[in-house]
Amino acid sequence: MDHTLMLIGFSILIFIVTWLAGMPPFRHQHRKRIGVDYSTGEALACGIFLGAALLHMLPEANEAFHDLGYHYPFAFVGAGVVFLLLLWLEHLGTHLADHHHANSPAYAWLSTAVLSIHSVLAGAALGSTDHLSTAIIIMVAVLAHKWAASFALAVKLVQSGKSLQSNLVAFGLFAFAFPLGIVAGVITADASASTTAQLLEPSFNAFAAGTFLYLGTLHGLTRATLINRCCNRRDFNFVIIGFVLMAVVASVH
């Protein structure tokens, strides 16, 4: 399959899934039952995100920086900075929810911004991936996570009290973030031979690694799979399965 066609197909699929998952809260204006069990998919996604970050993106970014003559661990610094930034933003959102109101417009828009950053960097990671097997498994993880994240964000937006038009605009920005990230990843992968341009791809990989590490560990804070459901053997087994999948893929590259 042509790499470009594959990425276009992935973009369209993610875009459709995002809107399908987000439409029920908008259409029904948040019915009483908002809880949907995505635990298995989220657990599998956590393992895949961890494996993708630790076994693919960080090593590739670090090797690329070394090949360009940079022996300082810039890849790990970049991943750490993004990880801490996302953690700080999520704590800020929790602070807004606790001290103002969980359904405040500020909290809803902050959630939109944080999830959009996740999406852009995840899309960039997919767009810059040369290996089909890696791309497909990352896509599975993104789909499993995106469905739940889209539904949860739509619920937050509906609860914010803003107009339907305003909420749809915010959700539309979130929906376009992943395809935008894929485009950014493709552009950096196809960048010219200049040293500055060559630095873009490992930088994106490092930032995406930090994002995936965060998604696989602390995203959701106390609701995170590795915190809230670490004693649930079924869910934890799916985390392990996801990680092993990425380890197997790494062994055949």
Secondary structure layout plus pairing:
Blueprint: H1 3-28, H2 39-67, H3 74-99, H4 105-127, H5 132-159, H6 164-189, H7 195-198, H8 200-217, H9 225-228, H10 233-252
Helix pairs in contact: 1-5, 1-6, 2-3, 2-5, 2-8, 2-10, 3-4, 3-8, 4-5, 4-6, 4-8, 5-6, 5-10
Can you walk through the features of this model?
It is a multi-pass membrane protein. Its main location: membrane. With 253 residues, the chain is an all-alpha fold. The protein has one domain. It has 10 helices and no strands. α3 (74-99) packs antiparallel against α4 (105-127) and α4 packs across α8 (200-217).
- How would you sum up the major sheet? none
Radius of gyration from CA coordinates: 18 Å
Order of helices and strands: HHHHHHHHHH
Give the CA-CA distance, first to last residue.
Answer: 18 Å
Shape descriptor reads globular
Helical segment count:
10
Helix content: over 70%
Regions with little confidence, pLDDT below 50 for 5+ residues: 30-37
Structural category is: mainly alpha
Q: What portion of the residues fall into strands of 2 or more residues?
A: under 5%
What's the number of domains? 1
Number of strand elements: 0
Question: Quick check: average pLDDT?
Answer: 78
